[in-house]
Amino acid sequence: MDPSTIAQLKQGACENPQEAFFLAQVQDRSERTTKTGSPYLELTLTDATSHLNLKVWSNHPQFAEINDLAPAAFVRVDGVWTQNQYGLDGKRWQLRPLEEGEIEEFLRGDPATASKQDADWNHIMDTCAALEDPRLRALTSIFLSEFGDRFRRAAAARRNHHARRGGLVEHVAQMMRTASAICTAYPDLNEDLLIAGVLFHDCGKLWENNYPEAGFAQAFTLHGEMMGHIPLGIELVNKLWREALNSSETATWAALEPPSDLVRLHLLHLITTGPGNSDPPLCLPLRRLSPCITSTISMRNMKCSRWPTRTPTNWPLGFSASNSPCPPIQSLRSPHLSPPLRENLIAGNPPTRLDSLRCCTR
């Protein structure tokens, strides 16, 4: 008999008893007392799919053994399971600690999830290795080499989408596939920039939404809570860019177009304009095409787990060819733009700073 996940057990259990076993990690253990004064334990067990609360009554044959379990212990639970008005209920269940080999296999997730995440990881590696721009190829290579293990553990969110160990790999891989497909329809786009932007758009979540090396509970870190993933992502890309500049290959970068610092600047811009930060200060009407596409892909992938309308031009990075440092976009439907400002932007007239301040006033 193959193990069930906690999510499968919750979905499959009913009033008719079902014999099954699952693997889990002890996330919490608390001592409680019944109304009659008898002690009992309440375990919170978790895996990559869900969590389960299990009561251990004082007359359970393993009561003393479970009370001595090490924090965050990995266990196998065999029993007969039913579903009632209070949730999942276990009868005649037994628990034993997992052996080392079982723990390693368990941390990979259920076979279907592990297989999918392996395929997604290989797609990310192959796609980044195939980038034609040597600067972005070097940058992504350093990132995947230094932070690959941490990346593979991270979640894309705490609740909303891909909120599981390895979820960020699934999110990024699917976004890369979508970005490549969009570039076949819009060949003037800079695909290398979009792919690198997809890879780094949530890289700060390696600290904001990560899991320990051996565990299924997302830890709260000081940097993640106080700064958030966008500032952390910007800091990380700048750090990696400085590391890439120390490479022997950088001697040839000076002759590349667009200039290296402009590539870095636009890559940072892709990070700042994700779905959670779509209104950067003073720039609401000034969104360029690649950030719009990256943000749209991310939002659609988020919603599918639980197109752009503008025609691009031939500017080297796939943005609009305009003398304005922040060219306007054609689809200006924001309710925060006054009619005169919207007309000026559509006509191609660059906004004043006062216009920008007005457009961001809510």
Brief summary:
By secondary structure, this protein is an alpha+beta fold.
Record field, number of beta strands: 5
Count the domains. 3
Beta-strand portion reads: 5-15%
* Quaternary structure classification: single chain
Structural class: alpha+beta
- pLDDT averaged residue by residue: 78
- Element pattern in H and E: HEEEHEEHHHHHHHHHHHH
Helical amount: 40-55%
Cα shape: elongated
First-last Cα distance: 59 Å
Account of the 3D structure:
The protein has about 350 residues and is of the alpha+beta class. It has three domains: about 5-105, OB fold (Dihydrolipoamide Acetyltransferase, E2P) (Beta Barrel), CATH 2.40.50; about 110-325; about 330-360, no CATH class. It is built from 14 helices and five strands. It has helices at about 5-10, 65, 100-105, 110-130, 135-155, 165-185, 190-200, 205-210, 220-225, 230-245, 260-270, 290-305, 340-345, 355-360, and strands at about 20-35, 40-45, 50-55, 75-85, 85-95. It has a five-stranded antiparallel beta sheet with strand order 3-2-1-4-5. It is elongated and about 80 Å long.
